[in-house]
Amino acid sequence: MKPPLRPRLAPARYVTGPGAAAEPEPGRPRAAWSVREKRALLAALRAQAALGLPAPQPRPLRERLPRRSEAEILAFLCRLRGRAAREAVCTQYRHCLEQQRRRHAQVPAPIEVWLELAETLAEGLEEPTAAAFSQPCAPEGFAVDFQRVYEYLARLCRGGKGPALPPAESAVVLALLGSLPQELGALDCAGLRSHLRGAYGSLTAPQPPGTAPPAPPDGWSGLGLCPLNLFLVPLRLLARAEAPG
Q: How many CB atoms lie within 10 A of CB 172?
């Protein structure tokens, strides 16, 4: 004996017409977004973007997704934005960590170590240093603003772009750069090396609590350090070394 005939219903994904967009029963979970629905949503978003719309319009999007309500579409877009923001933050964080690892792995050049130490010592002394450079009197008929020269060199040391210099100041900077190799070769390099090693050790060594700082040079007691001679290099070491005779 055959069983009685039963009416068969088409699967929900094939249902079209007015009943297709009906809301599910309360408490019933929404169906997961299928690949077809995601592609339809992406095509609809691209079409709206081509029209120059400032934000996604849910009603036209729902025309492409008849089984989804406007609230569902907006909630799905909100989840996509949150996921994209999290991925962007994670990518930026990984990039920063990689840059830090690279910086820590690179051994700094000696000049970079001394520049960093000089910036730490000279913090807050830019104005006194600029005032000292603007005093270094020019001969009659040849006026040079040495404060501009100092500001130009200071910005270059910080990795910035120096201001444009007038012809007189440009000539001074050019003369300084041109004479630098010869002047450095004429210094007492052994004496300078010994003094700078001692200065670096004393400046970077930890100070026990309660230890009084070293006495500042005369004339700069208010500042605590001479900005023109941060490492307290003796003047005799900045003079030309005597030629071996």
A: 17
- Which token pair is 200? 């670096």
CA-nearest of 125, 158, 157 to 227 is: 125
pLDDT value of residue 12: 47
Residue 41: how many CB atoms within 10 A of its CB? 20
> How far out from the chain centre does Cα 17 lie?
56
Contact 197, 191 (CB under 8 A): no
CA distance 148 to 143: 12
Backbone φ and ψ of 240, nearest 5°: -70, 135
- pLDDT tens across 101-139, in order? 887 777 777 877 887 887 777 766 666 666 666 666 655
The region that residue 159 occupies, defined by phi over 0 for left and psi between -120 and 50 for alpha, beta otherwise, is: left
Q: What are residue 187's DSSP bridge partners? A: 240
> Cα 19 vs. chain centroid, distance in angstroms?
56
